[in-house]
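pasting for the record
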Amino acid sequence: MGLHPHNTFGLAVGCAIAAVRAGATAVELSVNGYCGGPGNADLAATALAFEAVYGVRTGIRTEELTHLARLGAEVTGCRTAWNHPITGPDAFCWGGLDFITQETAVDPLLHNCVEPSLVGNERRIPFTPDSGPYTLADRTAALGIDLPPAALDQLLDQVKQLMARENRLADDDDLRALARELG
């Protein structure tokens, strides 16, 4: 018995899991859920649910799933949502709020139940208007920028002014340039 689950109500992955638990021996999945209409169960999300949640070895090289998903989008011309589960570019991005960066430092699995590297993805922490001194300190340390606390406060003010003035998020190049100006 097998299943070809459509994603009409956003439940295709759950239906695939339920079907296997009920005895199905085959489930049709597709890269990025591609199929006519509402799509099918996504290969990456379903495979990772079986592997990480249920401990079922699928034989799928999960570390290649993000690459496969992005290749699928490139080949078909059908891009997935930025927050597409498991393989989306921001699937492991919770914004740059200080409490998020600090919690992630304590327990990387607090906001995501799996490590992004398990599927070849990455955790991204952008610097946003809501970011504060802890996120800035973490980001500058990762970039090899060593500033005293007073200079970090000045940098924070300048970065927030830049984001407001240019109506965009600050990137690493912005942080480097503004830090250089501080000396």
